[in-house]
Write a structure and sequence with these properties.
Blueprint: H1 6-18, E1 20-22, H2 23-29, H3 37-49, E2 53-58, E3 61-66, H4 70-86, H5 90-99, H6 105-123
Helix pairs in contact: 2-3
């Protein structure tokens, strides 16, 4: 999955939240100082070329909407991260959290229950 730049992710978060918007509406939701219309329009067209968004045309303007959900993007990004930094090992990720004391024993037990429940559902 292609990665988003910081600015692209900022714009995608707006589209994920609002569902469909014109460039002018997106700009209104950005913090000051507001970027130029052409800057945001260029980034949005880039997101469209990457396959993250599409548009519906209204005269000579376009209303943009996300093609990929925030959840799907997050999952893909996490898979890429684990592949790149943990050699495809999810257990290494959990181990790191345990070692850094970022995850409690109770949380680990809940994860084990989820895995066992998921395994049972797949075997049914």
């Amino acid at each position: 999955m292609k990665r988003l730049t910081k600015r692209e992710e900022e714009l995608m978060n707006i589209l994920w939240e609002k569902e469909a918007m014109f460039v002018k509406e997106v700009i209104q939701l950005l913090p000051d100082p507001k970027p130029h219309y052409n800057t945001i329009s260029t980034i949005i067209r880039g997101l469209e070329e990457k396959g993250f968004i599409d548009h519906k045309q209204y005269g000579n303007t376009h209303r943009y909407f996300a093609l990929i959900s925030k959840d799907d993007y997050g999952k893909g990004t996490m898979k890429d991260f684990i592949s790149k930094y943990f050699n495809h090992s999810y257990s290494s990720v959990v181990s790191m959290f345990v070692e850094e004391e970022e995850i409690s024993t109770e949380e680990i037990k809940k994860l084990i229950e989820q895995v066992e429940s998921s395994s049972k559902n797949q075997n049914d």
